[in-house]
Every structure is written in C-alpha cells, then in structure tokens.
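Data's thin. Show one?
=====
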Amino acid sequence: MYQLAYLPTKPETCPFCVQHSGGNRCEGCGYAKTHGGRCDKDTSAFAQFIEAIYDLAGAIHSIQDEGENKGADPLDLDLAKKSLQESIYTSREATMRFISDISNDSTYELMETKARYIGEILQAMPLELMNSKDAKLAHLRSYEKLERYW
C-alpha cells in the first residue's frame, strides 16, 4: 500500500501541470489536448486511473482491517519472505530506472516514462500474498486504467 501512496500521480509531478500553473492552468495543456479535456473531470482517463488506485488501496486495506484472509491457507513464511524481497528488489530497480530515464526526457517522454514506471510498480506488487479476489480485481482494473492514463 505504501508503494501506491508514492506513485508520481500528483499535479506537482505532472510536467503539464507545472508548465501551465496559474489562472488559466489547463489552457494549452498537452495532456488535455491529447486526452480529450481536463484531467480533473471525473470522465478523464487520469481521474479514472486515480479512482482505480484508490480502490486498489481500499481493497488491500480491507484485507488488513477486516481480515479478509481469515480462513485462507496459511502462508508459507519462506515463500512470503522471498515474494516480498522480490517485490522490493523489483520496485527499487524500477525506481532507479525511472530516476535515470527522466533526466533527459521531453514532456511527452516524461509522461511515457511515468506510465511505464507506475506499471512496473503495479506489477511488482506481491499479489500472491493477498488471498483476496477484490484486491486482485482492483489491481487488474488499475492496470487497465493505466493503459489509458497516457
């Protein structure tokens, strides 16, 4: 869940929002031009992606809070440890690539790099440790919405 909280999806990490800050913030925005309008509309690809991420975080949180995994087969602790280590390693590698890649990216390339990075982080999530159909479905929806994000 912590990975989701730090995805680069806030206006401060959007080169279009940074470039077009001020009173007429969305006029001339490249994202708006290429994605059919303002990103803050509920029907925008961005808003739908953010909603899918919130749903995913909620589904993961419900596993923890409501004990959705109760009655599930107990986890093999060695496999769980290995899965978490792989998830952390993969996430770190994706982050290092992201940091390296963004240094020379144009605005549009930066958005492509961000989308690729977000996808890699979603893929690195240890879903096999979550015995939750809701979390797995929310994960799939997030990934599908990401495809329209950029």
